[in-house]
Write a structure and sequence with these properties.
With 116 residues, the protein is an all-alpha fold. It contains five helices and no strands.
Length: 116
């Protein structure tokens, strides 16, 4: 189930509404119980956080978080020494600017952000 659909269902339940029929649950329903409603709102917060993580992960470059091998590190140094800016290095290596700076530092270079 997609996170957004789960959010729709849990929000409806927290509002005391049947997510499939739109009918309001009766006063004695478990969904009208204060503790149940608080639990549903906690579930909503967790689902919203999960959705934000999903969106964030999708926005990351393809190779973000993957280990660096010797060949890619050598290529990074070569390109850096050709004065290619950090933003372009990140694009070429499909990594974040932070990962480029971190790897260059690890490789003994003193990178400076050449472009934002």
């Amino acid at each position: 189930m997609k996170t957004m659909r789960a959010l729709e269902i849990v929000r409806a339940l927290a509002d005391g509404v049947d997510p499939y029929t739109g009918e309001v649950f009766p006063a004695g329903s478990i969904y009208q119980n204060a503790e149940t409603v608080r639990a549903l709102y906690a579930a909503i917060a967790a689902l919203e956080a999960a959705h934000k993580r999903e969106v964030w992960k999708k926005a990351l470059p393809r190779r973000a978080g993957q280990p660096w091998d010797d060949e890619e590190s050598s290529l990074l140094i070569k390109r850096y020494e050709q004065s290619i800016d950090i933003k372009e290095l990140a694009r070429q290596h499909e990594r974040t600017k932070g990962a480029i700076v971190s790897q260059l530092t690890k490789l003994g270079k003193n990178p400076e952000l050449r472009s934002e």
